[in-house]
Amino acid sequence: MSSTDRPGAVMRAAYYEKQGPAREVLQVGEVPVPEPGPDEVRVRVVVSGIHVGDVGKRRGYWGSTMAYPRVIPHGDGAGVVDAVGECVDPARIGERVWVYLAQSYRPFGTAAEYTVVPARHAVALPDEVDLDQGALLGIPGITGHRAVFAGGPVEGLTVLVTAPLGGVGRAALAVARRGGATVLATVRHADQVDAALRAGAHHVVNVREGNAAEKIRAIAPEGVDRIAETDLAGNATLDVEVLKYHGSIATYATSNADAPLPYWPAAFKNITVQFLSNDDFPESANVAAAADLTAAVAAGDLRYPIAGRFPLDQVAEAQDATEKAGATGRIVLDI
């Protein structure tokens, strides 16, 4: 019997009991080890991946509130299955996995020695993929996949990815290219062009050099079919200009939630705009994304640079670093 099987077993975890700045509300201490229920697995977490949604929930951005009196943060991570609930094959114990949505509609995320997730949210990680990369796939990766495939397959289509070097953008580039699309990316700095090409874009346009629409049209004379959009408010006018008739925008963020949109130009083109929130994608979309992302990272088509890593005791510093990392890379927490 392991220590976690004994009644009253505890583990080290980061948690907060009120929303606010990281250094004011995040604590590290001992909490009870969670037990897996039916159709759940418990994972011994090795690496916890952090994304901006974790920060937003802790800060109370976007109108988010705390549904639980205590929250262990972070939705993504990687580790080893160490216990299973009813209806789960015991052979999964010992399996290397990456997990996603650990803290969506649940109080305990991956910033802890153990977490419990639905069995389907613990995805087998191939031996050739290190746990760091597995820990970073999760919610950003699934969001990128959804932004590309929400409208169906992309074989033979032209897909434009904005912010291609962020957590969502890198995944979108990889899965769009693997899906058979011609992939364009837009960046805002000259030194990002080569990085976006290495990350999987076929073509890159620096929008700050001017004539962005003209340059995109030179690459895609008929217009692009789909756009994976990180800033709907900031890019809507350009998006509508370069989209084909009946094209679509899948947007997961915006710089201004109240900004007006170019309604009539979009209406005349019969453009579809799909708004994405990663906690509530259809489960079938999550499962498809998990399979495609695992294949992409195993093949080397998707790789996240790591801009910083921190021990559990420095979770506040890690979350603050996540807000500043941007396109430079991702932040991980060693458990």
UniProtKB/TrEMBL annotation:
This protein's superkingdom? Answer: Bacteria
InterPro entries, A to Z: ADH-like_C, ADH-like_N, ER, GroES-like_sf, NAD(P)-bd_dom_sf, Zinc-ADH_QOR/CCCR
Q: Which GO terms describe its molecular function?
A: oxidoreductase activity
The UniProt transmembrane annotation reads none
- Keyword Ligase belongs to the record: no
Q: What's in the keyword line of the UniProt record?
A: NADP
Q: List the SUPFAM superfamilies hit by this protein, alphabetically.
A: GroES-like (SSF50129), NAD(P)-binding Rossmann-fold domains (SSF51735)
The Enoyl reductase (ER) domain extends over 22-333
Pfam families according to UniProt? ADH_N, ADH_zinc_N
Under what name is this protein listed?
NADPH:quinone reductase
Which source organism? Amycolatopsis carbonis
